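re: ur question from yesterday

yeah so i grabbed the chain u mentioned. its 96 aa long if i counted rite. heres the sequnce exactly as i have it in my notes:
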Amino acid sequence: MFAAVLVTANAGQTVSVSYVVNRTNGLVQVSDTLALQVVSGLAELPAPRMDTVGADGVVTPSLIPGYGATVRVSYPGVGAQDSVVVNWRGASSHDT
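ran it thru and got these structure tokens back, copy pasting raw so excuse formatting
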């Protein structure tokens, strides 16, 4: 396990990861090296938006279509392969 401070210190860099096994018989084995690119994290994510919410921040259930509410998420560096989980917390809870 690597400390978060070590990972953060290498943000934007390529690091080499390997390991060494010291056998009880004195044999030393060194692994192949894996090159990893460490990307910078975001300090803060912007709030999500929901299509059927007015400027007043009020959700009107009658405006939500039968197939469900659309929640939109946008953040710097968003990628097509990114996975986002939306959490709904209130009288009942749901994750998508």
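noticed a couple things. The chain is about 5% helix and 25% strand. also Residues 4-37 form one domain.
anyway ttyl
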